[in-house]
Amino acid sequence: MPRVTTPLELHPLPASDLRLATPLFTMRETAAYLGVPFSTFHTWVRGYERRPPGRPAVVGAAVVHAQAAQGLSPTVPFIGLIEAHVLSAFRRAGVPLPKIRAALARLGEDTGVEYALASGHLYTDGRDVLYEYAEQQGEDVIRSLTVVHSGQRVLRPVLEQDLRLITWDEDAWPVTLRLSGFERAAVVVDPERGFGRPRFVHGGARIEDVVDRFFGGDDIQEIADDFGVPVSECLEAVRVLGRSRLVRAA
Q1: How far is residue 215's CA from residue 89's CA, in Å, rounded to a whole number?
Q2: Strand order in the sheet with 187-189
């Protein structure tokens, strides 16, 4: 099978870059923010090994970058959050994870960039890479990655929608992400602001500050008024972030 060829000239992300070097979220927080089951997210970060009776072991490598766990400390950096966001989009589009793992291995070899999954080049001027890969891997991948529109293959709408939640810098590395785990609230992560903690677009408050006040017994209307955040968005933050906190405290 011929290799995927790409004209992309990706600028590597330095290991010292804040987006890569600084852990921002726990695994449970990240899963909650993205609306991904924790068990699924855990395999993305730590990989897995399964041993079916009488059959060879099945091993899946990690596909999301994170630091080693140290108690309840954050382990997932901003780049890991972006990788998980993109994987979640592929998952909703019906792309099997083994196919994603194979694509990442191939793209890493061809681009020479370790974090190619988080690079905007792949989803803008590098789309031909995805299309070529899909064609080489078979009809099932083509169906899951793309659709035909006006006689041309384009990315599935669910992928387009999720990719639009990311903003990129001049080197096509992500700089902000609107979290996909929120339906009502507009919540953005910017590693350059507020220590990278998620914030409401309306009012600018950190969602954890709203949730802390709610679990501290304050009235939700009073919280909304104090932070300038609609009540419906405050309640959604309590539901999303509160779930991970209750599990952690159990």
Answers
A1: 31
A2: 166-168, 174-178, 187-189, 199-200
Are residues 63 and 104 in contact, defined by beta-carbon separation less than 8 angstroms?
A: yes
Helix ranges restricted to H, 14-96: 18-21, 27-34, 38-46, 78-92
Q: Which residues contact 9 (CB under 8 A, 6 or more apart)?
A: none
- Find where tokens 């309590």 sit: 238
The Cα–Cα gap between 145 and 156 comes to: 6
Q: Which residue has tokens 């590693």?
A: 191
18-41 per-position pLDDT tens digit: 999 999 999 999 999 999 999 999
Global pTM value: 0.82
The Cα angle at residue 165 between residues 178 and 187, in degrees rounded to 5: 15
DSSP state of 14: P
